[in-house]
Each structure stands twice: as structure tokens, then as C-alpha cells.
Design goal:
heterodimer; A: alpha+beta; SH3 type barrels; 3 helices; B: about 675 residues; alpha/beta; Rossmann fold; Helix Hairpins; 3 domains; six-stranded mixed sheet; 29 helices; binds guanosine-5'-triphosphate
Chain lengths: ~90, ~675
């Protein structure tokens, strides 16, 4: 349809909530969309359970801001921001 | 008739594998709580129902795609050595992630038994798990256990015995989506036609290929049928297959878990509450530092009286022996060589035992992972892992146990760098040297000087780490993907076992190197210089210009002259390799302290040495080759003479350069002259 203004399109598009995991504030929950990044760390991240669709709670950042602690599949995992950056997620309510 | 079989114990890190291993074999083994702490392969024996079982405790692994050295060891053992039975220990409070490994073990087609461990904690948390249903679903025996109490071990061994005589090998109950399965079948066909792959289960191998496992790919490349394999792999979208396979394994697990257990997700665990405080933004660092301080104090202060006792005892022992033996050279060999040598090995034992007791409490409780979490930001700045922090701090007490403590660092490169820079942490034995020299030359400023030396050590360590990271040990930083295991109450027994293990390793592996070094130096100091006409090991020879070491000192004098040192300092530094604090004692002898009531400090201050050379000597003492005990553990922990010698050469070169700079620049600008 020609009539939809581009601005609205952008907000409607699912890109709106898409972010990398390192940017998510503590106490929010997200759903994993995709893991990118270097092969070896990507496989490790997938193996640890961050597969697409998995719900991840962001628990806290370390006192110095990095790494970040997450909870998923009932256990706690920490990633440096550099690794979290390779995980594409969307915020869930 | 007794059967002899091999049973491999596998599982994720921290699931209680070591506890189960200890409960089965009764052997004295390490119990830890830091992911991946088990580095060696531990083997124990147990006879059950007339079956002789050899139990192998494998390092913890999250998946059969191996990343760290630990994991490669574990995986290769299962794949290449084909144990008769594989027991996977599972943490019942963390089923979903633990069972990811189960799916892969089942794919491998090994005879699998599941030890459902930590059932006490799962119960306390409010989960209910139907192990019978789980057993039906997986078609493998599932035995509930409590590793720390030894519950369920007999049942587990019964299951091992039963399973042995069954011909049925775990069927593969996991099927993937049809696109994966189709590709998998194509690959399996190729694999089955090539005898090269006969050693590997073809389904598992083909799934690993589809996942893009680099290790497996490398193996496949060596086969003749690789072109065919490559053709199939090129046709598919590797990235999406990789994610899909992981995803579908987890989906299958979820499906099963919904049927066999009821997990209480509402529960805010004790662990979460502890972490709110312990890793809190404001409190995290102060708490960590206080704990570090306490551990440090306990290790090094509590150890002091024991060390004094050892010191006094060996001093007395050496003296008594010297007096009893009338042949002079023999009495010196026994007294100054052998007894002193054994003493210098044992003197570190209190430190080592106490430090490892403390570390083990921290590991078993789960705090160690938090410590790494808190300190990682700082350590990553020099290319290291958060886990490197603790060994480095402990280095201020004594480098020897500190280097042994690097065992907890998983990445080999990180570990090696940590070992190589730990000797720059100024240990307690170097302090007497500073106190003497700074006191003699700098009077009221002694404190500032000593503090600067500590700071210099840290600086050198940091710069060296960065340098090594960008040159000889180059490479991507290891990804930081670390589990924060839930807190557990450590068992005293476990910590004692751990402490004793480390002590034994030290005595066995490092002890001999230290002893050889000490006796070697004694020989150099005792053998009369050729042509001097002295008597072997006599007082006129020992350590003087009439001895080989004195001659060596004179030979190397030109080397150290630009630093403002004479041959006596050169000899004292050679003695210092036995133990750094000996530098002071040797200087005393060489400068004739005590002969006319003059203390060494008076003699030095009176002009035996310039203050600049004194400062240079302190810097030299800080940086040059560590003591024999330290050299012994570096060899033991790196497993390589090459790296050990590298540390010696690197440190000594730095020491020379810094002392040279101090003396030369200082004299030019006329400082302290
Ligand atoms: N409550 C409870 N604690 C357990 C149980 N099994 C082990 N533990 C404790 O869990 C901690 C870790 O146990 P380990 O046996 O060292 O675990 P592991 O799997 O060998 O760990 P790594 O060697 O680090 O891979 C220790 O503090 C044990 O005392 C159990 O069934 N119940």
C-alpha cells in the first residue's frame, strides 16, 4: 500500500524492539532472536542454551559495569558485553 | 570370574561429579565448585558384584563440541577410548541445560546411565522429578543420588553392573526436523561407505558435521570421501543448521521435562538473595576485597608460626648434624646442603596448605565464580580473565602457591600468561631485602621506596601481560561465557582433601627441583676454585673468592658493574635464587658483617655501596629469576622447560635493564650520588 508513511512503517516493523543483549537494562526480560559473531563463541553461546526463542532475564551488571549476569533455563550465566553484543534479542513484557 | 570394565564419569561442571567419584572410589580427590576445575584425568578403582570397575573422572563439559582443553580431554576419552559405560552426572536443579549433553551422549550411542544428583536441593527448591518416567522416556537407567552424602551410590553401581550385560545400546530417541534428517542420512551414507569413519558412530558424526563442529570437520578432511561430504555441506545453509540443531535438542528436552517433572519457577533461591548482596554494585567490590584480605591474612599470618617452627627445627637439625659429623665437607654437605635444602622445600608447605584450604572453600561454595565476575573488567584490560586476579594477589604473599592456584583458569593462554607474570608480584621473601637496603640508604623515605617497588612489580606485570598478548601469545581473547553456579555449603572433608592433594603435588613435583637447586648451589660454593689450593667445603672456601661460585661472581662482575654491583653482590644474587631472603644473609657474610660489631646495614651505609646501586639492587631482586621453589612450580604448572627458562631469562633481562637504568640515569643526573 502506498499510503503508509515511512515513519509509521518503521515503528510498526519488528525492528523496533530488536536490540543486542548488551544494551538491555537489568531486570528486563528478552527473547533471543539470533546469535551472530565468531564461530566458536557463537556455538558455545548456543550450546549454553541461548537458542532462538529462549527467554532470558537480565539480572545485573557486575559492579564495574561488565560482565553482565543473565538467568535462562533456570540457571545463571555471565557474558562479557562483547559476547552479549552478538546476541540479537527482543524485549518481552 | 571377574570382569574388568571402564566407567567414565561425565557431566557439566559443578554438578557434583567429583563428589560422586570420591563416594564410589573412596579415593582422596579434589572437590571443587569452579567451572572446569578438574584438569587431570582422575582414575579410581572399585569392585562391585565381582566386577572390577575402573572409574575415570572426566573434566566437566557442557557439550560434546569441545572448546577448552578440559572439554577436549573429556570428549576424546569418550569417543576414542570407548569406555564400557558412561555415567552422566546431572544437577537435578538445572535439568534443562544439563540434558543438552545427554542428547549428545545418546547420539553417540554409548551405554549411558544417568545419576540424577543434588536431588536434595531440587526437593528443597520445591521441584518434583519423576525419575521413573524419565527413565522410560530416555530408555536409560536414571538413578537418584546425593553426591556430597554418598546416597544412591550402591544403586548407581548396581545399574552399571546390570547395564553391562544388556546388549541394547541406547537408542537414539531424538529426531530432528526433516530437512536436517535428510541431510544427515545423506552424510551417513557417505560415512558408512568409508572405512576411515568406522571408528565413529555415523549418526553422531554426521550431526556434528551439520552443526559445523570444527574438530570433526578437521577429522573428516583427512578422509578420502571428503569431497563428497564437502559437496553436501556446501549445499546447505550452515549457520541456520547450527542454530536449528541446538534449538531442537533443547526443544526435545523441554518436551520431556514437561512430562516428567514439575519445576517450581516462582522460587527465589537463597543463591539469588546472596548474590543481591555479594555482587551488588556498591557492596560487591568491598566484600570481595575484604574476603581477599581475610584469605591473605589467614594464609600468610597463620602460616608464620608454623614456618618459624620449621625454620627453627631445620636450623637446629642442621647445627646438630654439623656438630656430630667430624668430616668437615660431609658436615657442610649435610648441614648447609641437604638439611637446609629439605627445609627450604618444607618451609612453603604451611602457606600452600592454608591457601588451598581457603581457595577450596571459595570454590566449593560457589564464590570463586563471583570473584571472577567482579574482577573481570579490570583483568580484561590486560587481556586476561577475571579468574587471574586471585593468583596474582596471592603472589604478594608467596609466588609458589599463587602459581599453583592458576589451575582454575581454563584458557591455556590466559593461564600461561598469569603464571609468567606472577613472579613480578613482590613476595614476602623479598621484603627483608628491601627492608635492609631501604633502611640503610633511605632512612625516613624507606617506606616510600618499598611501596614504589611493589608498584613497579605490578606495573611490570601489567605491561608484560599486554606485551605477551600482542607478541608471543597472540590471539583473540577467550570468550567469557561463565556459569555462576548456585551457592552451596562446602564440606570440610572436601576442602581437606583438596588441600592435601595440592600439598602432595607440591612435595612430589616441585620438591625435587628445589632440592637439586639448593644442593647445586651448595656445591658451587664449596668446590674450591682451580688453583686456589683450598679444601673442599672448608670455611675458607665456602662462598668466597676461593670457591667456584666466587670465581663465577668475579667472571660476571663486568656484567653487573654497569649496575654498580661488585662480585659480592653477584654472588649474593646467585645465592638468592635458592630463596630471595638469602640475599641478605649472603651479603652479611661477604661484607664481613658482625666481625667488628658492625651490622651489614652500617657497612653499607658507610659507603660499601652507593645508594643508587642499593636502589638498583632492590629493583634487581624484585624482577630477576624467582627462587628455586618458584621455578619448580612454574615447570610443574606449565609442564615445559621452555616456558620456565623463558620466565627466568625474561625476568633477569628486565631486572638488568631496570637496574642499569636506575644506576646510569641516576648517576648522570647526579641523584643520590
Ligand atoms: N547439596 C548437595 N551438594 C552436593 C551434592 N553433590 C555435590 N555437592 C556439592 O557441590 C559442590 C561441587 O561438587 P563437585 O563434586 O566438586 O562438582 P564437580 O562436578 O566435580 O565440579 P568440577 O570439578 O568443578 O567440575 C561441592 O561443594 C559439593 O559438596 C548433592 O547431591 N547435594
Amino acid at each position: 500500500m502506498l499510503g503508509i508513511p515511512t515513519k509509521l512503517k518503521r515503528t510498526k516493523g519488528n525492528n523496533m524492539n530488536e536490540k543486542t543483549l548488551d544494551l538491555i537494562e537489568p531486570e528486563l526480560s528478552v527473547k533471543v532472536l539470533k546469535v551472530t559473531g565468531q564461530k566458536s563463541s557463537r556455538k558455545r553461546i548456543l550450546d549454553m542454551g541461548l537458542t532462538p526463542g529462549t527467554r532470558v532475564d537480565v539480572i545485573r551488571r557486575a559492579p564495574l559495569g561488565d560482565p553482565v549476569e543473565f538467568k535462562l533455563k533456570g540457571y545463571n550465566l555471565s557474558l562479557r558485553k562483547r559476547e552479549a553484543e552478538t546476541v540479537l534479542v527482543e524485549v518481552v513484557e | 570370574m571377574t570382569d574388568k570394565i571402564t566407567v567414565a564419569l561425565t557431566g557439566n561442571p559443578n554438578v557434583g561429579k567429583t563428589s560422586i567419584f570420591n563416594a564410589i572410589t573412596g579415593s582422596k580427590q579434589h572437590v571443587g565448585n569452579w567451572p572446569g576445575v578438574t584438569v587431570e584425568r582422575k582414575i579410581g578403582k572399585r569392585v562391585h558384584n565381582d566386577i572390577e570397575m575402573e572409574i575415570v573422572d572426566l573434566p566437566g563439559t557442557y557439550s560434546l563440541t569441545a572448546y577448552s582443553l578440559d572439554e577436549i580431554i573429556a570428549r576424546d576419552f569418550i569417543i576414542e577410548e570407548k569406555p564400557d559405560i558412561v555415567v552422566q552426572v546431572i544437577d537435578a536443579t538445572n535439568l534443562e541445560r544439563n540434558m543438552y549433553l545427554t542428547t549428545q551422549l545418546m547420539e553417540l550411542g554409548v551405554k549411558l546411565i544417568i545419576a540424577l544428583n543434588m536431588t536434595d536441593l531440587a526437593l528443597a527448591k520445591g521441584d518434583s522429578i519423576d525419575s521413573e518416567k524419565m527413565q522410560e522416556f530416555l530408555e536409560v537407567p536414571v538413578i537418584s543420588t546425593i553426591g556430597s552424602k554418598g546416597n544412591g551410590i550402591e544403586g548407581l553401581l548396581d545399574a552399571v553392573a546390570d547395564e553391562l550385560h544388556k546388549t541394547r545400546v541406547t537408542e537414539n530417541i531424538f529426531t530432528y526436523d526433516s530437512d536436517i534428517e535428510t541431510r544427515g542420512e545423506e552424510l551417513e551414507k557417505v560415512l558408512n561407505n568409508d572405512p576411515y569413519f568406522a571408528h565413529y558412530p555415523s549418526r553422531w558424526f554426521s550431526m556434528k558435521l551439520l552443526e559445523g563442529d570444527e574438530n570433526i570437520l578437521k577429522k573428516a578432511k583427512e578422509s578420502e570421501s571428503y569431497p563428497e561430504i564437502e559437496k553436501i555441506l556446501n549445499e546447505l545453509d550452515a549457520d541456520s543448521f547450527e542454530a536449528k540443531i541446538a534449538d531442537q535438542r533443547y526443544k526435545t528436552i523441554q518436551t520431556m521435562l514437561r512430562q516428567v517433572c514439575d519445576i517450581n519457577t516462582e522460587h527465589l533461591s537463597g543463591s539469588d538473595m546472596v548474590d543481591r548482596v555479594v555482587t551488588n554494585k556498591a557492596l560487591g567490590i568491598p566484600i570481595f576485597l575484604s574476603l581477599m584480605w581475610a584469605a591473605f591474612e589467614i594464609t600468610f599470618t597463620f602460616a608464620t608460626p608454623f614456618m618459624n617452627i620449621i625454620d627453627i627445627f631445620f636450623g637446629w637439625f642442621a647445627e646438630t648434624a654439623t656438630n656430630l659429623i667430624t668430616i668437615p665437607w660431609l658436615s657442610s654437605l649435610v648441614g648447609e646442603g641437604m638439611i637446609a635444602g629439605v627445609g627450604s622445600v618444607l618451609i612453603f608447605l604451611p602457606n600452600i596448605l592454608l591457601l588451598f584450604f581457603m581457595l577450596s572453600l571459595m570454590e566449593d561454595s560457589g564464590y570463586m565464580a563471583r570473584a571472577a565476575f567482579i574482577m573481570d573488567k579490570i583483568m580484561s584490560k590486560i587481556g586476561l580473565h577475571g579468574k587471574s586476579f586471585i593468583p596474582l594477589v596471592m603472589g604478594f604473599g608467596c609466588n609458589v602457591p599463587a602459581i599453583m592456584a592458576t589451575r582454575t583458569i581454563e584458557d591455556t593462554r590466559d593461564r600461561l600468561i598469569t603464571i609468567l607474570i606472577t613472579p613480578f608480584m613482590s613476595c614476602g621473601a623479598r621484603l627483608p631485602v628491601y627492608v635492609l637496603l631501604a633502611g640503610a640508604f633511605f632512612g625516613r623515605d624507606a617506606g616510600v621506596v618499598i611501596f614504589s617497588l611493589y608498584a613497579l612489580g605490578i606495573l611490570v606485570a601489567i605491561v608484560s601481560a599486554k606485551l605477551m598478548r600482542s607478541t608471543i601469545l597472540r590471539g583473540e581473547d577467550a570468550p567469557f561465557i561463565m556459569e555462576l553456579p548456585s551457592y552451596k555449603i562446602p564440606t570440610l572433608k572436601g576442602s581437606f582433601i583438596h588441600m592435601w592433594e595440592r600439598g602432595k603435588i607440591y612435595l612430589k613435583k616441585a620438591g625435587s627441583i628445589i632440592l637439586i637447586g639448593v644442593v647445586g648451589v651448595w656445591l658451587l660454593a664449596s668446590i674450591p676454585a682451580p688453583g686456589s689450593g683450598g679444601v673442599f667445603a672448608s670455611e675458607e672456601v665456602y662462598g668466597t673468592t676461593n670457591s667456584v661460585i666466587g670465581v663465577i661472581g668475579q667472571i660476571i662482575e663486568p656484567l653487573v658493574a654497569p649496575l654498580g654491583f661488585d662480585w659480592r653482590i653477584a654472588v649474593a644474587l646467585l645465592f638468592g635464587v635458592v630463596a630471595k631472603e638469602i640475599v641478605v644473609g649472603s651479603m652479611g657474610v661477604l661484607y664481613g658483617a658482625g666481625e667488628n660489631e658492625d651490622t651489614l646495614s652500617d657497612i653499607l651505609a658507610a659507603g660499601a655501596m652507593t645508594p643508587l646501586a642499593g636502589l638498583g639492587l632492590m629493583v634487581f631482586t624484585l624482577l630477576y629469576a624467582p627462587c628455586f621453589a618458584c621455578i619448580g612450580v612454574i615447570k610443574r604448572e606449565t609442564g615445559s622447560w621452555k616456558w620456565t627458562l623463558f620466565q627466568l631469562a625474561y625476568g633477569t633481562t628486565l631486572a638488568w635493564t631496570f637496574a642499569f637504568a636506575v644506576y646510569q640515569i641516576g648517576s648522570r643526573i647526579g641523584m643520590l650520588a
